[in-house]
Amino acid sequence: MTVTSVHDPSHREALWELEDAFERGDLISVFGRCTVAYEGRAASDLGIGDRLLVLKPDGAALVHTDEGRQPVNWQPPGSEHRAAVREGRLRVRSTRTNPDETLTVRFERVHQLSAMAVTGGRDLTLHGSEEDLRTRILERPDLIEPGFEPTATERPSSAGPMDIFGVDADGTPVVVELKRRRVGPDAVGQLARYVRALREELGATAEERGDGGDDGGNGDDGGDGDDGDDGDDGDDSGSDAARDDPSPAVRGILVAPSITGRAAERLADRGFDHVALEPTPED
Amino acid sequence: MTVTSVHDPSHREALWELEDAFERGDLISVFGRCTVAYEGRAASDLGIGDRLLVLKPDGAALVHTDEGRQPVNWQPPGSEHRAAVREGRLRVRSTRTNPDETLTVRFERVHQLSAMAVTGGRDLTLHGSEEDLRTRILERPDLIEPGFEPTATERPSSAGPMDIFGVDADGTPVVVELKRRRVGPDAVGQLARYVRALREELGATAEERGDGGDDGGNGDDGGDGDDGDDGDDGDDSGSDAARDDPSPAVRGILVAPSITGRAAERLADRGFDHVALEPTPED
DNA sequence: ACTTGAATATCGTGC
DNA sequence: GCACGATGTTCAAGT
Q1: Do B111 and B134 fall within a single domain?
Q2: What pLDDT was estimated at residue B18?
Q3: Chain A interface, mutation test: which of B1, B24, B38, B50, most A Cβ atoms within 10 Å?
Q4: Are residues B144 and B261 in the same domain?
Q5: I need a surface site. Which of A169, B65, B122, B252 has the fewest CB within 10 A?
Q6: Tens of pLDDT along B87-137?
Q7: Candidates A34, A221, A229, partner chain B, best to mutate (most B CBs within 10 A)
Q8: Which whole number is the average pLDDT over B39-62?
Q9: CA–CA distance, A194 with A163 (Å, rounded to integer)
Q10: Which residues lie in Acidic residues bias regions (chains A, B) (predicted)?
């Protein structure tokens, strides 16, 4: 039998079953009326009530109520489970170190305890990720725009690896930033950093192209333009003329299913483009 | 009886119990051998294996394996659960809209099904949050430094609401940014945005205050003064002169239990201070 | 071990 | 409903 199960056990009975299940490495589910106390990175106390306690052989512990996706209390994998009967009640305690954390569940009454030996079934395949989006574009670059040609993925730069690098129909370098779902202004900042990094890297070329790559205003401190900040502080308009250049040396394209209004504003400010595209084709 | 439980039920038997439990608004736990398919914001498929399915009356659904704190598949609250027997197997499906998402669990075999009517016990008290840290400082402002006086919390600015705003012993405006745990450079950037916004707002006043009054230091180790700036954000380069002013019109203080080395460098670059403080007093 | 960044993040709050 | 920030975020990957 792969599953053991007891209904309305005594505390001592529940303890025996728990210890056996620990020994076998079972996945355990306990329904019962209990209090919960946690102390570690923070601290919390939960009064008496009906809850579901899940104990995993890898050390994870979860306390669920009847609401919410998140457990009301938990312990991450790597913790150690112990059970005991104290003051006539079943007490389950899960501890770990680094940081030191303790989760204690005290059962006033155990309604149902089940344990199952789990085998196999770890082959999860996830689709619709950012990688799918990249694959889709590499197979059909015209989804970005006619004439676009990808030349590298994860191309390194001083601002980190960029998702897709390529050239457009005019031979202008293009940085493509991929997001698998609707994005806000932060994604525009990320794209701006890559573009700036590439403009600096290709600076000489830009000069030759006669497009006046750098504005004369702050030419002295040449690496420190203020438009590439990560956060959302770039709201001051008109701080640079270069971004309004009609033919910038490097283009930026943000690929995402949709973008927020604020993000659209920033894209326009910087002269970047948005291409609406889903990780997988719509039905 | 508040708990119903069936061991090794037939698929039809399991269906009856499930539908009854849905009707009663029970918290449900199902052990069984199953496949899982999800389609929505992403898509995934999970081959056959032993898992624990948790169904909540608020619409949440969780599929847990024997590993990890996170469910391998799930559906958030607000979804609708339905059960049926198809092709001789129990099928549980949870759907929601906006976005459209579907989670389907097909049981080859149900080992154990339990359902419990949950009552009460929603009074969770959590300690050690950022709000605790704010409360602690407002009650004892001298923890920041002698003479510090908070004047507002969540004070608005063009960069968003700042955690605590106040004045130091010299009457200089102070922006305090709170973090409940160890922080990296991003927190310094956040603080810098607030300080810059306030400096702009109070610009005229700052010009007049050009006296030589300097802070007495707060006794912690002074940051090294190296200028090895990597310039990957440079968020306040616009007001360049103000940064090096020995008596800036606005001070910035980052309150956190500890900070990373890179964050310390940036703090020093911008002339900000760090105060080491926990959300709750150490024992 | 520390740091960085993504997630089907989730969850609250404010607009 | 949308956007933004905090979370005992968790988690994987890179350094």
Answers
A1: no
A2: 98
A3: B50
A4: yes
A5: A169
A6: 999 999 999 998 999 999 999 999 999 999 998 788 888 998 888 999 999
A7: A229
A8: 95
A9: 10
A10: 213-238
* Better-scored residue on pLDDT, A155 or A5: A5
Answer yes or no: do A255 and A135 share one domain.
yes
Q: Which residue in chain B has the smallest CA separation from A221?
A: B237
Q: Which residue of A has its CA nearest to B111?
A: A3
Instruction: Assign residue B193 the CATH number of its domain.
Output: 3.40.1350.10
Domain boundary among A83, A116, A149: A116
CB contact under 8 A, B120 and A49: yes
Residues A238 and A161 in one domain: yes
User: In CATH, what number is assigned to the domain containing residue B70?
Assistant: 2.70.180.20
Q: By three-state DSSP, how is residue A267 classified?
A: helix
The answer to whether residue A222 sits within a structural domain is no
In a domain, A125, yes or no: no
Q: Stated in angstroms, how far is A70 CA from C9 C1'?
A: 11
How many beta-carbon contacts under 8 Å exist across A and B?
Answer: 230
* Least confident piece of the model among A22-31, A215-224, B266-275: A215-224
Per-residue pLDDT, averaged over B204-215, amounts to: 46
> Residues with Cβ < 8 Å from B198, sequence gap 6 or more?
B157, B162, B165, B173, B175, B250
B190 to chain A: which residues are within 8 Å by CB?
A: 231
Of the three residues B116, B142, B157, the one that is the final residue of a domain is B116
Residue B180: the pLDDT is 92
Among A25, A6, A3, A2, which residue's Cα sits nearest to residue A90?
A6
State the pLDDT at residue A205: 55
Is residue B136, in this structure, part of any structural domain at all?
A: yes
State whether B135 and B272 are in the same domain.
yes
Domain check: are B227 and B261 in the same one?
A: yes
Instruction: Tell me what pLDDT residue A224 has.
Output: 36
In a domain, A283, yes or no: no
Rounded Cα distance, B138 and B147, in Å: 13
Q: Which residues of B touch A119 (CB under 8 A)?
A: 49-50
Average pLDDT, chain A: 84
Expressed as residue numbers, the domain containing A76 is 3-116
Higher pLDDT, A63 or B220: A63
Beta carbons of B27 and A50 less than 8 Å apart: yes
Contacts of B120 in chain A (CB under 8 A): 47-50
Determine the length of chain B.
Answer: 283
Cβ atoms of A185 and A267 within 8 Å: the answer is: no
Would you state the pLDDT for residue B44? Answer: 94
Which tops the pLDDT comparison, A235 or A283? A283
Give the residue on A whose Cα is nearest the Cα of B190. Answer: A231
pLDDT in tens, A77-123: 999 999 999 999 999 999 999 899 999 999 999 999 999 999 877 78
Same structural domain for residues A112 and A134? no
Number of domains in chain B: 2
Residue of B113, B172, B185, B116 whose CA lies nearest to B144: B172
CA-based nearest residue to B133, from B150, B147, B146: B150
State the residue for tokens 């906006």: B98
